[in-house]
Amino acid sequence: MTNTQKNMQQVSPGFLMSNIPGALGYHPDDCLVVFLLELHCADECRGEYHLGPMFRVDMPDLQAISEFAEYIAAWDPDLVMAAVIGDERTKATALEFERQCCELEVPLVAMWHVPELYSGARYVRIGGESADSLGPYTSGKAFWDEGTIGEIVAAPAMAAFRRRGELPDASRDDALEFFARDDKLVSVEEAAQLGAAATQHADSLLRAISNSGPAEAETLVDNLYDDLFELVDQILVEDISVRDLVAELEHVEQIAPFFARSALRDPLLEFAVSDNAEGFFRLCVAVARATIGVTRVNALCCAALAASFSERGHRVPQALQCAFEEDPAHRLSHLMMQALQCGGLQLVHQACREGSELALAALKNP
């Protein structure tokens, strides 16, 4: 029916849907998840479909469904499959998506409904083609109209979670909470003070660099970023958690000024697309949890970038969503969200490497 990797593994609807929590990073509810598939011709008689991008939209919202269908149509997919997760009201709204796909000539071949997404949950096809109408070379026909969700923990999308000994979050709200401030560790007042102090320190650093001679400026900048590299390395070597970083605050106070101004932030981007991405990710999340305003937003964007380069790709849309909520006009957030939506994060990685080098050179030569 579909292929998810180069070894051309044949999969069933239950297997396909078992990958949703691992791909999203949480167990979704009341939503529509859409899979886009690309046709690869195996021979003159048949073709093989490879799994491409996956998208999710909240339900039930008819206006959102209409816009979502138009968005899917713009991708010009070869084949589309959908999973409806939720109650009967959600199921009814999903049928509107099928109607919209028909009008827009989106090739929605099947849509399955499951009340809750867990291993062994039963799904039923509520839209698209029946098993009897499928072509003779279609695999998974025995489980097309109904079946059970596969083992979620064993799904390929869970591989990174298994390596870290983690599980997806229980809900989307829990996933977004990962980047939220912890009242037990940092109060609103403390977060505001940290943000203000970071801005003041950043401005002082930039003035000091600007007032220095060429050699002095280069030495000062090198020392600043060498210290940062040592901190990121220390986080990895000692396996310091985000919570521990926030609880002690010493490291957060040290790094926060780098996120307060773009001139200091941009040279950091190289850390996000390097072997130190995991350590940098933890540091960024710690700063985001402990500050507010532009410092938090920049930290969230850098966390998203580091997540996209490491094995935490599910955190990218979550971090960008939090950044957008903090500052809807933030430029870097918009650029990264656009790249995410069009599948261009790999291009962003290369741009960040080059841009980081240029930003560092500019900082050394004020």
UniProtKB/TrEMBL annotation:
Lineage, broadest ranks: Bacteria, Bacillati, Actinomycetota, Actinomycetes, Mycobacteriales
Source superkingdom: Bacteria
Name this polypeptide is given: DUF4192 domain-containing protein
InterPro entries: DUF4192
Source species: Corynebacterium hindlerae
